Structure of Biopolymer transporter ExbD:
Amino acid sequence: MKVEEEGKVYDDINITPMLDVAYVLLLIFIIMTTATVQGITVNLPKASSTPSLSKPKTKAISITPDGSVYLDTYPVSLQELETRLAQYKAATPDLPVVVKA
């Protein structure tokens, strides 16, 4: 029988502990995945199938440095601005108007 030397270099890698850790992690992952599936059912609100086509509720009046007047990006004269605002006000009495100058 041959006696091994004590100073011999250990050249084999034992992967058994690493595989044990991998199996334990896999087991924990499987258990946690199935545990998160369980729970109570929540009735979520349903989205309406019709898209919202409502127009903006505010009117914007823009005045450029050269004196041009715009109502919601459309150029208007002062008389036309007055008549359009009167029409909008008649349709919606609490219509907010934003002035940008």
